Amino acid sequence: MNKKNKEKLLMVKHGDTRAIVSYSDKKPKIISCSGKNNCGISKKNCPKHCKIISIVEEFLSNGEKSNSIHEIFGEVMIGIGEYYVGKRTLIKTIGLGSCVAVALYDQKKPIGGLAHIMLPGASENGKAKYAGVAIEKMLEDMRRMGAKKNRIVAKLAGGAQVFKHITLDVLKIGERNIISVEENLKKEGIEIIGKDTGGSVGRSVFFSTADGSLLVRTSPGDERWL
Amino acid sequence: MLELDDLDDLELDALKELANIGTAHAANSLSKLVGEYIDMDVPVVNIIKISKINEKFGEEIVAGMLTSLQDLDGKHSGYLYIIFPLDSAKRLTKLLCGSDKIDDMAISALMEVGNILSSSFCDASAELLDIIILPSPPNFAMDMASAMVEAVASVFAEKSDYLILFETKLRDENDLNVYMVLIPDVKLFEYILKMLRGLG
Predict the structure, then answer these.
(1) DSSP for residue A169
(2) Are B116 and B20 in contact (CB under 8 A)?
(3) Chain A residues touching B140 at Cβ < 8 A
(4) Which of A14, A153, A196, B104 is most buried by a 10 A CB count?
């Protein structure tokens, strides 16, 4: 697990558009934006001024928080089989193939967690690489931080089958991971409100526990927000 | 859990020698195929925490080929992961098919290169160890290097938190790079050590 606190980050929402914006010296810079729907311009040709930037500038000049802006106080990268729970944190994990990323968050409080699950089922050794163990541990940590279970919802990404010409059955682990994650969430009574699973492409994910936004970036470069 | 620290220098050298012989044969085969001199780096043996695998292999999109290695009993005893960075994959395709477009034909050609590399690697190391190792048909994909190795990591993760990696690199004078990573299971690794101790 790697922690860093270099840049200041904001999660910004405007209508259906969601964006991760960093800033230093009151100058905002868009890191990622789902803007295609709204402004019709891809992030590579972002206009110098858009609604997202003006929301951020307004926030930076008067410090007033609105529903459309959420502050992030830290970034964490988790490895395979690890999980992290935190308040107002951007949790990242890269290179998901057959593994499944499970994001949990409290809909009323900025508390959430992300797990990079490798294996279906559970294990007595209590290691978070197993779906059952990771979900149980995340829920417990979130409860201790003040989250309420009946407000917690889940988003999933991953479980791909990256090899098209597959000759080895043992490598078909993605599908089993998805099934196991879904079963474990059902057992805990957690609703899945968004997922981008299966298929044949690798994914990297960014999860904001400030507002529950999950950004999925696929290996061909597509970005989806859940 | 075995640790690399438990091995003395002689044993580490022997392990590297094994990877060396395998890679040398693979380099020789690749050299014949492309008609160019192929050089190889000194192999590195690493024991790495599985949780660090995605950071190690990273998000770079590569052409990757994964082969399982089996002994005669049909038990899986490890994997060989061959990585062609995209520009190298294109150069190989250009050499073999005449165009650097990565289409189905090019993928077949790359898989064949992978086949030749893994067979020559297996032949050479198996001869030294006096066992028979058969490579499975290759599994091919173009994706993030770490996304491809994840399924293998999951298979090993059921028993251990660590992976043993023998890493080597083949290259020509013009930025053609091919990475070969042997991931033995613990049984094969212990067998290799036993044999190498016997040889020493």
Answers:
(1) G
(2) no
(3) 163-165
(4) A196
The residue segments making up the domain with residue A191 are 74-225
CB nearest to B151's CB, from A94, A97, A200: A97
Inspect the interface and report whether the beta carbons of B137 and A167 lie closer than 8 Å.
yes
pTM for the model stands at 0.88
Beta bridge partners of B140: B65
Mutate to test the interface with A, among B56, B75, B150, B160 (most CBs of A within 10 A): B150
The Cα A109–Cα A153 span in angstroms is 12
User: Domain B4-199 is of which CATH architecture?
Assistant: 3-Layer(aba) Sandwich (3.40)
Contact B154 A118 (CB under 8 A): yes
Q: Which of A213, A225, A4, A10 is nearest to A114 (CA)?
A: A213
CB contacts, 8 Å: A120 with chain B: none
Q: What is the pLDDT along chain B (200 residues), one digit of tens a residue?
A: 455 566 677 777 777 787 888 888 889 988 998 888 998 888 888 889 999 999 999 999 999 999 988 877 766 688 999 999 999 999 999 988 888 888 889 999 999 899 888 888 888 877 877 788 888 888 899 999 999 999 889 988 888 888 888 888 898 888 889 999 989 888 888 887 777 777 54
Residue A39 a catalytic site member = no
